[in-house]
Q: What sequence folds into this?
C-alpha cells in the first residue's frame, strides 16, 4: 500500500497545504491500482488531481462532516457531473462510493445546493459507516472505528497488501479528528502506520477535552497501540510546526514524521 498526503492543514487550508485529504493506493493481483481517498477537505480537490484522475477514485471515506474534511466533495461532484465527454476517457459508468457518518448524503446535498429534483445519487453512492463493519475496495479493506469529537466521527483502519510482499497484509490507521479515547487506541493497535491528528498544543489547549489530540496524546496512542510509525497531521496554520513532534517524541520512541503535502509512505 502507498499513502500520499494530499492535504494536511488542520481545521482550514493553510498557506502551504489544503485541509485533510489522503490518497491510499494498492495494486491487486492483476496489477490494477485501486484508489481510496480518505477525507476531501477544503482545498484538497485541486492537488488531488495531480495524483490521480478523479474518475478513477474507487471509494471515498469521510471521517466526519466538518468542512475541513468534506468541503471539496462539492468540487468532485461538479467534475463527475459536468466533465465533457471524451472518447479517450469515457465517463464513469457507476456512482462513486462515498462512506461517511449517518447524514452524509443530506449534508453533501445542502453544501452543494441541489436544485429541486436534482439528486446526488446519480454520481455519488453514499453509504453510512457501520462501526467495525469492513468495507472492501479491491485489495483493501476499510474498517471504521468510532472516535471522540463534537460531531459523530470515525477513524479508519485500512488493511491491504504490502508493497514489497503482497502476500503480507499491512495496516494504515487514520485518526480523523479525535481526542484520546478507546477508539483511538483500537485504531492504533498493531498499525504499521498511524496517521494521527495533533491540532492541540500542550500547555495551551490540553485542558479542552473531547475535540483534538495534542502531539503528546498522539504519541501516547502510538506507544500504547504499538504502532510502528507515526505521522502527525492536521496541524493548524497558527501552530508552530515542530511542537507536536517534540511532544510526541517524549512518549513514543518509533519513527515520527510531520505530514506535508506530497509526503509518500510506502508500506
Ligand atoms: Zn478537522
Ligand atoms: Zn473536526
A:
Amino acid at each position: 500500500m502507498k499513502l500520499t498526503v494530499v492535504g494536511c492543514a488542520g481545521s482550514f487550508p493553510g498557506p502551504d497545504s489544503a485541509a485533510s485529504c489522503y490518497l491510499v493506493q494498492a495494486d491487486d493481483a492483476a496489477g490494477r491500482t485501486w484508489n481510496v481517498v480518505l477525507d476531501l477537505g477544503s482545498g484538497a480537490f485541486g492537488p488531488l488531481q495531480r495524483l490521480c484522475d478523479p474518475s478513477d477514485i474507487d471509494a471515498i471515506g469521510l471521517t466526519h462532516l466538518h468542512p475541513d474534511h468534506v468541503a471539496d466533495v462539492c468540487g468532485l461532484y461538479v467534475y463527475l457531473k459536468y466533465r465533457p465527454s471524451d472518447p479517450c476517457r469515457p465517463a464513469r459508468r457507476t456512482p462513486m462510493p462515498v462512506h461517511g457518518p449517518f447524514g452524509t448524503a443530506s449534508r453533501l446535498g445542502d453544501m452543494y445546493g441541489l436544485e429541486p429534483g436534482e439528486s446526488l445519487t446519480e454520481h455519488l453512492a453514499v453509504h453510512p459507516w457501520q462501526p467495525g463493519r469492513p468495507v472492501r475496495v479491491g485489495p483493501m479493506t476499510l474498517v471504521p472505528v468510532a472516535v471522540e469529537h463534537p460531531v459523530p466521527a470515525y477513524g479508519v483502519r485500512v488493511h491491504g497488501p504490502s508493497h514489497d510482499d503482497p502476500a503480507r497484509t499491512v495496516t494504515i490507521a487514520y485518526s480523523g479528528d479525535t481526542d484520546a479515547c478507546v477508539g483511538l487506541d483500537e485504531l492504533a493497535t498493531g498499525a504499521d502506520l498511524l496517521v494521527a491528528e495533533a491540532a492541540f498544543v500542550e500547555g495551551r489547549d490540553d485542558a479542552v477535552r473531547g475535540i483534538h489530540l495534542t502531539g503528546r496524546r498522539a504519541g501516547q496512542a502510538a506507544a500504547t497501540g504499538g504502532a510502528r510509525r507515526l505521522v502527525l497531521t492536521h496541524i493548524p496554520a497558527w501552530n508552530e510546526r515542530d511542537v507536536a513532534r517534540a511532544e510526541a517524541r517524549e512518549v513514543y520512541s518509533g519513527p515520527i514524521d510531520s505530514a506535508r503535502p506530497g509526503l509518500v509512505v510506502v508500506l
About this structure: The pocket of zinc ion (ligand 1) is lined by residues 11, 20, 66, 68-69, 177, 234 (CB under 6 Å). The helical segments are 45-48, 67-70, 73-82, 104-112, 182-188, 215-225, 243-249.
